[in-house]
Amino acid sequence: MAVEKSWMEVLAPEKWAEFFGRRLTTLGDFTLMMARVVRLTFRRPFRTQLLFQQMEFIGVKSWFIILLTGTFTGMVFALQTYRGFAKFGSQALVGAISVMAITRELGPVLTSLMVTARAGSAMAAELGTMRVTEQVDALHTMAVDPVHYLLVPRIVAATLMLPFLTILFDFVGTLGCYFVAVPLLGVDPGDFTGRILELIKIGDVLQGLFKSTVFGFLLASIGCYRGFTADGGAKGVGEATVQGVVFACITILVGDYFLTALLFAA
Amino acid sequence: MKIRPEVRVGLFVAVLLVVLLWSALKLTGQRGVWRGGYRVSVTLESAEGLRSNGFVKMAGVPIGQIESIDLVANRARVHVRVREDVRLTEDCLVTAKTTGILGDRYLEIRDCTDKAPPIEDGGEIKRVGISVSLDEITGKLASIADNIQAVTDAMSRVLGGRKGEQELGAMVEDLRGTIHTVRQIVEENRAKLSDSMTSFQETARALGESVPEIAERLERAAADVQEFVAANRDRLQGSVEQFDQLVRRLTDSADSLKNITGKIDRGEGTLGKLVNDPALANSLTKTIEDVQGAVEKISRIKIGVEYRGEVSLAERVEGGTEPTMKNYVSIRAQPRPDKYFRFGIVVDPLSADIRQNRNYTKDGQTVGDPEITATQEDVKFSVEIAKKFGFLTLRGGVLENTGGVGMDLHFFREAAMLSAEGFDFGRDAGPHLKVRAEYTFLRYVTANVGWDDPVYQPSLLERKVYFEEFDARRRSSVFFGAGLRFTDEDIKTLLPFIPGL
Question: Could you name the CATH architecture of B302-497?
Fold first, then answer.
């Protein structure tokens, strides 16, 4: 005999409430922790050594991956836009349009995604492991604020380094675009650079750098928070890492839209 | 040796900062960073598409940038910073231009010369060109395209198909032939033309100097004409009456003709029977066709009528001079553009046929006194045939009752003419020569100046006869003249304005 579920059971409002309640709690907890991070950033002791270590890890050591992704993004963009512009004889615009896309959008977003994949995952995994192996508690017992000691350097380092990585991305992306458009596709080099100089304003670059700063803060804070709140042994650490990366990526892409809309309106 | 993380981070950041700074400088061009040069302002109807930091170009070369754009008295005041080494002057022209179809707008400055004073720092460029926006251009292009389509539609209707093609081919062929001929004519006559122009210029200058005198003499000539008409009023009156009688008789004739034709129509009498015969009708049709052909030929002949009065000086018996007037009336028949006949009557009050019997010597001995006969011949006739060669006309025939030749040169589409003629070559006083310049204005009116009879050398006897017969003697003299000239075309256009016709 089949048991008929009532509509109350199907909808399970209490489960929905529980689900949204948990999400809301997490959001509130996250926001409070980030507020603490911001506060603690300007509070002694300044652990510059730790900050520099994180800056080296997040920024300097990401140079190669950014170089590769930037170059190939520029190259593929040159190919794709060339197809379109050649249809109405404006091949010279390939450079300007590619560079505009790179500086305004692709640079900050792809750099942030690459750093999320490389450093964001590392933060979540590292902090998760420290949490489940009770190293975080050990810091507590040593009267060291783990948020101040662990989160602040990472988040500050990511926020500071992302714009520089974006500059690198923009630069190598433009070079990649040039090397495909000019020698391979035969675009006039003078036209190529001329159009870039004519159409690209420094505002385009600065807008991208501002976005990447925001993305740097977001990816580091989400990664760190997810690792910091991990529980349940090695499995929990794995879950925290995956969720941290996925959340950070989604936040970056969704946030990019609103941030662009906001900057567009300004 | 292990490099500390601070150093690596610092190096990394420094390198990328350099990249950022470099690209920032590149992308801003000289904008923002550059603050040299001097400032000028321009007032435009619209600053649409212009932006601060936008380019200001001269001959396509950036020479400055737009600093700011304000609204002053409902117009756009654009402040511009221009490079120190570029000198702008008061006559510079500023236009807002567009780069390409997608491009930005910029200000172009051009037409600066060294002649005008330079514009100082803070000055204003006053000359502003009209800048056409892309919208206006596309709008105009659309209407142009519509027009072109209408034209091509019409053309395809006219020229489409085999017939149109053939006609077009024939037209092109004709045109080619015409162009070839024109070129030939021009080449053949180039030298002549320039010579003639020079000589005509000289003549015109001389003419200009004697205009007041001409005017005075013309006035006098007009008075003479008036006097002549007054003196002959009675005779003219008689002519009119005669004409009246003629018309009355013609009317009578027409009435009897009507009577006769009525009879014919009704088949009465011999003629009436003849008219009703079809054989006669056929032969009549043919005759009419022949007549038509002849009439067509005649109707192609252009008829021209000309009157000219020339006032020259005569010598008085008691010494001194007095003006006399010579009148010319001629009819010109022109069957072809390059050929005409002229029948003329010359009324010359001081013209005489003076004959001296030369046979007064016999065997070396004088037989008797020379016999002199003098007849006043105030009316003389001319019949000439003329042929045109471009701007040159050669004519010959009877001139004033004697054989003569003449030559005319035409300039300015026949508005001006230089003419020389000679006749009466057997005269004792030497051949009668005459040179004349004529200018046609107001389409029908001619003004003339010339020298009549330059080589006239009368004998004492001739002087005596002249003084006895006419109380005056003709002499070699400059003359001034005025005239009227009509063609049959002109008369046709005048006909409707003559009442009673």
Answer: Beta Barrel (2.40)
